[in-house]
Amino acid sequence: MSLPVPHIGRLPAGPRNSITDVAGVRVGHCTLDDGAVQTGVTVIAPHPGNLFTHKLPAAVAVINGFGKSAGLVQLEELGTLETPIALSNTFAVGALLEAQIRHTLRANPECGRSLPTVNPLVLECNDGYLNDLQRMAVQAAHFEAALQALSEEVVQGAVGAGRGMSSFELKGGIGTASRCVVLGKAAQGFTVGALVLSNFGRLPELILAGEPLGAQLAGQGGSDSAPEKGSIIMILATDAPLDARQLKRLATRAGAGLARTGSAYGHGSGDIALAFSTAQQIESEADCVQMALLADHLLDPLFHAAADSVEQAIVHALLAAQTVRGRDGHVRMSLRERLAS
Predict the structure, then answer these.
(1) If you ran DSSP here, which 8-state letter would residue 52 be given?
(2) Which residue in the list 269, 277, 309, 334 is annotated as catalytic?
(3) How far apart are CA 323 and CA 132, in angstroms?
(4) How far apart, in whole angstroms, are the C-alpha atoms of residue 314 and residue 199?
(5) Which of 231, 277, 309, 334 is the catalytic position?
(6) What is the CATH number of the domain that holds 203?
(7) Is 325 among the domain residues?
(8) What is the C-alpha separation between 38 and 142, in angstroms, rounded?
(9) Is 231 marked active-site?
(10) pTM of the complete model
(11) 271 is catalytic
């Protein structure tokens, strides 16, 4: 059984169908593929400048908070993003937090002295089924390698932070997508892009583009009744002029796209969505910040774009991933290989 890549929803995708359809956003991976070490780092750079001095409006929606991320408390309080977004495995958070700080210090030597400290942002999922977490394999050099690999072309599947991730008892990983909308009397065009680190779901519950595909596959090969213990990180970028309050509303709609794929946000699942806008930068030394904002009554198409792009990104992660063998002989078969078997 072969499966073409379905298009989710009615909104058109951007030219790359990727988070990098939002101008200025780039993504880089560093993949660790060595026997029991199946992990990596993915970095999202929201704009090419100095984020510490030119922050972006941002917000987080914690759908289910079973996670060990760094930086979310201050982001929730202040509503700004001031470092790239680093994704990896659970035990890599400490190493990447330090790497983020050192990256900021190189461009801002007075950070932590005459300037405020930085709020490094690191988000994680547990890839321990395929990856030997106890080896603590991810180090600062891997963060730097991901930075060096930043590109508008985003490789998907079992790469970077997604190397060891599992979804629906199959191979998961990195997925990305975008949707375009036209808003208001001036017919302004805007883009919403999503990138997911997909590591959640039980096979019988998988819904792919509205079809109960998981129930069919589980019936063929059986599946245990273990509870949901996975996680997903959902990053939303937009060029629409939104503030932190509006971005939190946008981030919350990522849950709609997640639910459509068959997730009920289980007790042991860490489901976190973060949204940022590239439309206007916030200078750290400014005494007064003035921002042009979309009116709230125009937000509905952006909400649809957020839900559709997240669902599409999850589908892309499943369909792009290849089968991976990891620690102790553990294997996660790709969806395409499972369909072909």
Answers:
(1) T
(2) 269
(3) 17
(4) 10
(5) 231
(6) 3.60.70.12
(7) yes
(8) 13
(9) yes
(10) 0.97
(11) yes
